[in-house]
Amino acid sequence: ANGRPQISASFRDVAIDGAPSEDGAPEQGGSTVSITVVGASGDLAKKKIFPALFALYYEDCLPEHFTVFGYARSKMSDEELRNMISLTLTCRIDQRENCSDKMEQFLKRCFYQSGQYNSEEGFSELDRKLKEKETIVVEHTNLYEQMQNGYDCEAHANTFHQAGKVQNRLFYLSIPPNIFVDVVRSASRTASSQDGWTRFIVEKPFGRDSESSGELTRNLKKYLAEEQIFRIDHYLGKELVENLSVLRFSNLVFEPLWSRNYIRNVQLIFSEDFGTEGRGGYFDNYGIIRDIMQNHLLQILALFAMETPVSLDAEDIRNEKVKVLRSMRQLRLEDVVVGQYKGHSKGGKTYPAYVDDPTVPSGSITPTFAAAALFIDNARWDGVPFLMKAGKALHTRRAEIRVQFRRVPGNLYGRRSRSVRGGGTTATELEKATNELVLRVQPDEAIYLKINSKVPGLGMRLDSSDLNLLYSERYPAEIPDAYERLLLDAIEGERRLFIRSDELDAAWAIFTPVLADLEANKVAPELYPYGSRGPVGAHYLAANHNVRWG
Ligand code: NDP
Ligand code: BG6
Q1: Fewest CB atoms within 10 Å of the CB: 28, 103, 294, 454?
Q2: Ligand 2 centroid, distance to 400 Cα (angstroms)
Q3: Residue 119 Cα, ligand 1 centroid: separation in angstroms?
Q4: Measured between alpha carbons, how far is 295 from 516 in angstroms, rounded to an integer?
Q5: Which contiguous run of DSSP H or E holds residue 539?
Q6: Looking at the annotation, which residues are catalytic?
Q7: Which of 420, 428, 351, 424 is nearest to 392 (CA)?
Q8: In the chain, which residues have pLDDT < 70?
Q9: Where is the Glucose-6-phosphate dehydrogenase C-terminal domain (predicted)?
């Protein structure tokens, strides 16, 4: 797993080379993998985790011998779990061959165990069932092998030994954060693999600030080694975010421009055209800065701004991310604008205010929108504003990285000239039309570069147009969901896209002081109508740094 890939090698090729992982025995050969979704009755499990597991199974990406378990307090039979998850399973590309057969086969490998989250008995019972299935998988293998090869004592013994040798277990904690430690304590004590690896995927939020995050890490580490903890940030599994480093480090044209010398500002934009409906209870405890900025947007920023890693190895990449995060200035209150959506009627339809949600306390001042200006105090980025904007209930759904370049010095085409028919393009027009690189993470994934070019004709007018890589045109195959990539990585022991504890500490260090100030000063959010472009304060903030939002 530590080999340095060639340019053509995928991380997948590198990850499954069969080398022992740091936390266990061989990755795949002769092993079983049991995946337990803790909190299986919940929203994320149904919406994302089970469908992602099925997609991996459909694509033959899961190891041969795997089982899936759901664990939660709700009472359910295996059959009821299968019925529940079958409602959200889809074939990624409609009408694909054998989809319903594959679904049936997948569902047969899904089982359920009900239990409390802090109960060692519950997880012991799960352990018993896991062992049962792990053995059944082995027996099936033997029967299958026998049918294929004819009976051969030696081969039989080898197969049994091989398939039964390593039993790997992955727990996905899809539960509220206040019970992460209970589950880890009980599950690690009673349901860890005896001879293979045991890994825990932990969902966000990882704490509310530096202190609580540190405490969570310390508590998890009472029961687990760092190598066993896979802190997930699903934005790191998105295709365009994966492509960010490829774009930068494998094209000669970008890396030389990637600094304060050529880049004026960088914008990281997240917006959703729906509110917090259904998740108000969770959201009110966290707010948009913790929900989106401190993790998803900051992770993208770190990948964008880090120095070239020594290799594509997970630790080399994470080392660079930590370095750049630690070079960032703590965010100050004057560099933040917060907002909250209010009710709004449009076209005969009424949209609720954030505080109309019955699970949100009345009078809540939790921000559902924030804009912030961040700075990296290192030689590469000194003085370049990194502007973040994240909001719920805005006019559109999008996630983008926008890189605005400096203007061309002494631009020939910005001068009015008698020798240019039609007078040319004005300096003001050109000032606006600087180059801009946009990575549209979602929807309609695309990378485009705004350039100036000549409008065809006898005159000499310039026009801003795009060099456009639209994924749906260039790569018609459907893009895998982020959870598919991340689950597969966790199974394969590839940690590159998961957050290391020192990265997390560095990320919280940037945001914790401002979060404390916002709360201590009870800063009232600027109200903006549901479905609007958000508070005008965001424009003033950008203007203070000579930036216009893209
Ligand atoms: P849910 O609120 O749906 O909770 C998951 C399960 O946990 C529930 O089905 C319930 O199962 C159990 N549970 C819920 N509340 C409690 C409680 N107070 N005490 C004990 N058990 C409880 O969560 P989600 O599925 O929405 O999210 C799971 C995790 O993933 C959370 O950490 C969340 O922050 C994170 N996340 C969620 C996203 C989403 O889109 N939903 C997106 C990104 C991250 P039972 O009662 O059967 O035991
Ligand atoms: C989650 C946030 O992490 O990401 C949600 O908690 C948000 O509030 C979601 O809606 C957005 O994810 P995606 O993949 O739909 O953009």
Answers
A1: 454
A2: 14
A3: 18
A4: 17
A5: helix 537-544
A6: 296
A7: 351
A8: 1-29, 92-96, 136-165, 414-432
A9: 246-549
